[in-house]
Amino acid sequence: MSSIDPYGRKVYPITSETGQKDYYEHLNYWRVCYHNNNPLIIPTTDDAREYMRLQEIANKLYGCTDKESRNKLRQLEVYHTRYDWRPQKTGDDTFVGLISPSGEPLLPDSFADIFTQFDAINNKPSFIPVSNGEAWALVSLTNPPVLMTDFVYSAIIPERWERKLFFVQDADTKKWGALSVSYPFLRIKPYKGCLPLLETLMPQIADEIYEDELMAEDETTTFFMTRRGDKIGILTNFGYSDIIFDRYETENTTYAFRLIRNDRKKARLADYWHPDGKTCQ
Question: Which of 213, 111, 122, 211 is nearest to 165 (CA)?
Fold first, then answer.
């Protein structure tokens, strides 16, 4: 995915037409620590089941010196880095469902379209976007599935790294907002079967959303630039700023921001945990 350089920041477009097309491009290639264009291998059902079996016994293999154990660990690493563990659609041209590479049914053949850009073996999300042919909503991957929102969005883009945010576009205004996944402390047992919550992190007020990052030593933290007209703001997992600024500067080591307006002498001070700056004046 190619970056762009608006407002003095190197950012990645998410919600533009090009951004939506390329946002999950990294899922097409080997999962290794260097840049590569090696396409992933499409697994068979037997591959998926063997991968899951090797994962279950992996702790017993580490430290073993016999050839068979080393070969199993080597195969486990190949499965982990070179195979495509995204789900596949089932059904026909009218209604589609979803099945994991291991053959596990994930969703029935009840939707016009379904989001598939996620690891269905190692990192299955709580909610995924589904379409009724006219709009998009979020549904849980439970049995039975639970519709978590109405079909009121013209597009839904799950954030690609931590998968805790959903960028949502209002079907009428075409403005973008964000929903977040929260896991409240539950006092009543049993916990099994309890779904996390979806909360509005930012209402649909942005024309576009872009991916940016803070870099502290060797660690990166993703946050987002929001744009409305020719003004910008910031969005993090903890909230959002007004979209009224002309540019912003970052202090990577302290996760701080200076939100700058050309008509003001002083910048608004904010940080990753308080992007609105209300506690950082």
Answer: 211
Closest CA relative to residue 26, chosen from 14, 40, 13 = 40
**What are the angstrom distances between the C-alpha of 114 and each of 62, 93, 127, 137, 142?**
38, 12, 11, 10, 15
Tokens of 281: 């004046």
SS3 189: coil
Tokens of 165: 């945010």
Number of H helices, E strands in the chain: 3, 18
Share the mean pLDDT of the chain: 93
Number of CB atoms found within 10 A of residue 33's CB: 6
Asked if residues 98 and 87 have their Cβ atoms less than 8 Å apart, the reply is yes
Q: Is it the case that residue 207 has pLDDT exceeding 90? A: yes
- Residue 139 · residue 85 · CB < 8 Å: no
pTM of model > 0.85 = yes
Tokens found for residue 31:
């999962």
- 3-class secondary structure for 113-141? EECCCCCCCCCCCCEEEEECCCCEEEEEC
Question: Which single residue is written with the structure tokens 């205004």?
Answer: 173
Q: How many Cβ atoms from other residues are within 10 Å of residue 248's Cβ? A: 21
**Residue 201 near residue 226, CB atoms below 8 Å:** no
189, HSE (Cβ side, Cα atoms, 13 Å): 0
d(CA 124, CA 120): 5
**Mind listing the pLDDT tens digit for each residue in 22-31?**
999 999 999 9
Tokens 């996620």 found at? 118
Type and span of the H or E element at 19: helix 17-22
Other beta carbons within 10 Å of 12: 19
